[in-house]
Amino acid sequence: MFIRIIIAFLVGGAFCVIGQLLISFTKLTPARILTGYVVSGVLLTAIGVYKPLVQIAGCGATTPLTGFGYLLATGVEKGVEEYGLIGALTGGLTATAGGITAAILFGFIMSLLFDSGAKD
What φ, ψ does residue 100 adopt, rounded to 5°? Predict the structure, then answer.
């Protein structure tokens, strides 16, 4: 079990290092980097690379934004298998509904608890 934790930490940490390098050494905005991570998760899933990584690294691969892309892609795949073409439109949303709902709910709660303001 300890080895699995170390592998998850290393894989998740590698995603963080890549993100930090992109922030530090490119002119990409954080929004573009985040979007790129989700899209790369979908693409890596489509070519069959991400699923073995998830099996090896567990939450180290599913927690970052690339994991959200993986979840979208697997949801679409399952939706197409079950419902045909309409599943391509609904499968990703069905698979990620819990995460999206949690993000909206917690964002709303934080907006009630804290005041927003510009950085100085």
Answer: -65, -45
